[in-house]
């Protein structure tokens, strides 16, 4: 039941990320500056998390902060600022669907880094390692199939209600190559962030403070870039329009809610567990595209989504089997320790 709750929270977090990607793309097409979006969304999220942290820790004592952890905070803040900039530039040059597709590189990058930093154990004789490794490869293969192969049309969709005009999302000409390179770099930096954040939260188990520090640093670091990138300071003004909606949704649902969920689950299950939910983003992107954006549904999307789900469940099973194997190892060692004195007593009696 506990595992089902973790999976549900992660699914909700990834769905919200896809929705916010789509909203931010729409806002950018209306002229919103990328750096201004990053500055305001992180500033709003920092204010929200500050209020939550003051309330949550009003009667709790925070763990001691070491110089090493403080240095990691600064590194993660700088990486987050760079990573968010790369992501929104990539979405601006391409599309939210491509962003979701290339996020499927995150599990591979994270798995390799986790093995290098000994956050994941590789024991090829264990079922858990085989399941996690095969599931990761299968999920990435399914995402690539979904992204690169269309096939025959299953549903030629033209819904009466669309979240955005069709010309805003589907008929624009994007620089796909440059956008893809930026989004691939985003996946690599995101994997590094996962590794560093997991190490931080295990040394400093105060999830709200960790997320607040990262977001506050990102907001501060993005101010100079936002001021330099705008030609007129009037561009910093916010009105009640698509820009404000996109900034608000990003601050509340992605930076705050998803950020806290990711940090909390990383501390319990590790970075690979969180990264393995990334391939599901492309599935959500296809569903939203068919439902709200007027995209057609192709057979390649259905087959790719089915393969992703198979790989995803393989990894989840592998993580659960990992705990079973650890419990069996502990029980075996305890039973061995209990048997030794009996044997010694028997020999003494003889």
From TrEMBL:
Transmembrane portions of the chain: 35-57, 69-86, 98-117, 129-149, 176-196, 208-230, 242-265, 272-292, 298-316
GO molecular function, one term: transmembrane transporter activity
Lipid bilayer topology: Multi-pass membrane protein
InterPro entries: EamA_dom, EmrE-like, WAT1-related
Organism for this UniProt entry: Glycine max (Soybean)
Keywords in alphabetical order: Membrane, Transmembrane, Transmembrane helix
Tree of life domain: Eukaryota
GO cellular component: plasma membrane
Protein known as: WAT1-related protein
Family: Belongs to the drug/metabolite transporter (DMT) superfamily. Plant drug/metabolite exporter (P-DME) (TC 2.A.7.4) family.
Chain ranges of the EamA domain: 9-147
Subcellular location: Membrane
